[in-house]
Structure formats: structure tokens, C-alpha cells
Design goal:
There is one protein chain. The protein has 205 residues and is mostly beta strands. It has a single domain, classed as Porin (Beta Barrel). Helices cover 12% and strands 60% of the residues. The chain contains one helix and eight strands. The chain has one helix at 3-26, and strands at 35-49, 69-78, 83-101, 104-125, 129-144, 157-171, 176-189, 192-204. An eight-stranded antiparallel barrel has the order 1-2-3-4-5-6-7-8. β2 and β3 (83-101) form a beta hairpin. The longest helix has 24 residues, at 3-26. It is elongated and about 60 Å long.
């Protein structure tokens, strides 16, 4: 993901939160769609790695990997029809990149994950369809075997930062919805950032 796009995500989510708040303040009638929910989703991750450490692909070498199969599990509570809180775990899959370690080409590889907690905003568009947003904090990590690489070049490690997400849901029954989301977790380590695009199911209780 380009840096400008990543930087704009928190601004877009803040605008969604404020817009939904304005609508919620003027809404009439009893509250609905409140309470607990839980969900799971699967999709594709995307990583952004520091380009200063990368080297051209060696002849016959395995290609770099900056995307993988990803999934997330999460749960939350809607305080009102428009606002709530959510926490979850995301597994971002494998990432790899060739680098030069002490003059020798080597391929770093690892897997990404993130835990997050966020405030949520939801805007119903009719009885079945709604758009949503999340803005909070994420604790990310890249786990890998890159001991042969100098510490300043390793993309394994952990980091805490701002996470942002947005998506849509379509209710197929009173308590079950199909979801489509994009979540950006910011820095997973000093050298790596990550996000994921997923589809899934969400159950309300």
C-alpha cells in the first residue's frame, strides 16, 4: 500500500465516525441492532516492506511474497444502533523478501499477525444493508527466522500503532449477516506494514 493511501485511512474513518454520530444524534424512535456480535472472515493480506533492504531477485530464487491467505476472528458490542466497540485477532499469512546479509543474498520470510481494539461506527441503509468503520489501536508482529540478517535489516519484530477499517454488511436473517471489509493494521514491525481484504459472516446475539 502506498504511504499516502495508508495515511488517509484514519482521516476517512474519523469522517465516517463523525458523520454517523451526527445522524445518530438526530435519529428518532427506539434503538435497535444493539448488543453482542461475533464474526469470522477470510481473504487476502497485503504487506508493505522497507524497500531499502530489498535486492533484485537472484537467478533461480523463490519469488518475494507480499500477499497471502488471511483470516480474522472478532467480537464486539453495539452500544447503540450507530456506535460500539470491537476487538479481534488477524492472521495475515506469509511474507518474504530477498535482502543482502553481510554481502550474501538471503531471503527473509515470516508470518504476520495483529490484535486490535477499536471504536466502531455503523450506518444502516435500509433494513438489510449497512456500512461500517473501525478506528483504534493494533499490536502487530512479524514472526520469522532471519537471524542471519543484520538487526537493522530484519523485518521480524513487533509494533503498536493506529488501525483503521471500513466495510459493508448485508443481513440475510435477523441474526446473521454477510460482511466485506478492509482493515489496515499499520506497522507490524519496524520494517513492515500490513492490511487485509476479507469476506465473512457475522452473528448477532
Amino acid at each position: 500500500m502506498k504511504h499516502s493511501q495508508a495515511s488517509a485511512l484514519p482521516i476517512l474513518l474519523a469522517a465516517l465516525l463523525l458523520g454517523t454520530f451526527a445522524m445518530g444524534v438526530h435519529a428518532a424512535g427506539p434503538e435497535k441492532d444493539t448488543g453482542l456480535y461475533a464474526g469470522g472472515a477470510i481473504g487476502r493480506s497485503s504487506f508493505s516492506l522497507s524497500s531499502s533492504n530489498s535486492v533484485p531477485l537472484p537467478w533461480g530464487g523463490e519469488k518475494n511474497s507480499k500477499a497471502g491467505t488471511a483470516y480474522k476472528l472478532y467480537g464486539g458490542y453495539r452500544l447503540t444502533e450507530n456506535f460500539g466497540v470491537e476487538a479481534g485477532y488477524a492472521r495475515l499469512g506469509r511474507v518474504s523478501q530477498w535482502t543482502s546479509a553481510y554481502g550474501v543474498f538471503t531471503q527473509q520470510s515470516g508470518s504476520g499477525q495483529a490484535f486490535y481494539a477499536a471504536a466502531t461506527a455503523r450506518l444502516p441503509l435500509g433494513d438489510a444493508f449497512a456500512i461500517n468503520g473501525r478506528l483504534g489501536i493494533s499490536r502487530g508482529r512479524i514472526s520469522g527466522n532471519d537471524n542471519a540478517v543484520a538487526g537493522s535489516q530484519r523485518f521480524s519484530g513487533s509494533s503498536t500503532g493506529v488501525m483503521a477499517g471500513f466495510g459493508a454488511e448485508y443481513r440475510v436473517t435477523q441474526n446473521l449477516a454477510i460482511t466485506a471489509d478492509y482493515d489496515y493494521f499499520g506497522k507490524l514491525s519496524k520494517q513492515a506494514k500490513g492490511g487485509m481484504l476479507t469476506v465473512g459472516l457475522k452473528a448477532s446475539f
